């Protein structure tokens, strides 16, 4: 029986390289930073309703009184000022929004991303649809009605259409 020299016995041995721990920390830091930036960008233009100082939303609730003097119901919808609506998120925000001039016409948005979307009309952001007729409505000149339960808004070409919608949707 022939003996194998010791230098030939471990010819299949693998070399394990140990990575520099500083490089691992650097990569982890970059990953965390990117994750943080992504989170901030997603949260910067949220659809959450901004509450104004005080309890303005409580004061806006109008109750109708029936002939017995008992409360019949509260209106779910009301006409709101255009400057308090983010026209990209289609949400009543309760406070004045950022005025955005587009060729002499003023639109409103809640953040820097909204400015770009309205100026470039990305996703047709400057126009809404009248829920009564599906007609296209320019948001800058629209009469805007808020759904108080959700904060979402509807756009109308006239005050008459807006009032018709409100009357149709009373509780």
Describe this structure in words.
The protein is α+β, with helices and mostly antiparallel strands. Helix content is 29%, strand content 23%. Strand 6 and strand 7 form a beta hairpin. Mean pLDDT is 77; it is low at 47-74.
The percentage helix is 25-40%
Q: What overall form do the CA principal axes indicate?
A: elongated
Q: Per DSSP, what share of the residues sits in E-state strands of 2 or more residues?
A: 15-25%
The number of distinct β-strands equals 11
> Low-confidence parts, pLDDT < 50 over ≥5 residues?
47-74
SSE string? HHHEEEEEEEHEEEEH
Number of helices: 5
**Overall radius of gyration:** 30 Å
| Strand order within the widest beta sheet | 3-10-11
Give the integer mean of the pLDDT values: 77
Q: Which terms would index this structure?
A:
171 residues, alpha+beta, three-stranded antiparallel sheet, two-stranded antiparallel sheet, 29% helix
């Amino acid at each position: 029986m022939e003996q194998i020299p010791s230098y030939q016995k471990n010819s299949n041995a693998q070399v394990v390289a140990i990575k520099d721990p500083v490089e691992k920390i650097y990569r982890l830091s970059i990953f965390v930073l990117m994750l943080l930036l992504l989170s901030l960008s997603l949260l910067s233009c949220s659809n959450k309703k901004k509450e104004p100082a005080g309890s303005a939303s409580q004061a806006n609730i109008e109750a109708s009184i029936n002939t017995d003097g008992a409360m019949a119901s509260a209106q779910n919808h009301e006409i709101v000022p255009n400057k308090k609506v983010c026209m990209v998120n289609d949400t009543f925000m309760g406070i004045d929004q950022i005025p955005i001039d587009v060729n002499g016409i003023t639109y409103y948005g809640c953040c820097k991303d909204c400015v770009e979307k309205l100026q470039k009309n990305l996703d047709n952001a400057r126009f809404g649809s009248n829920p009564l007729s599906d007609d296209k409505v320019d948001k800058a000149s629209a009469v805007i009605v808020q759904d108080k339960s959700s904060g979402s808004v509807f756009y109308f070409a006239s005050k008459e259409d807006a009032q018709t919608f409100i009357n149709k949707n009373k509780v």
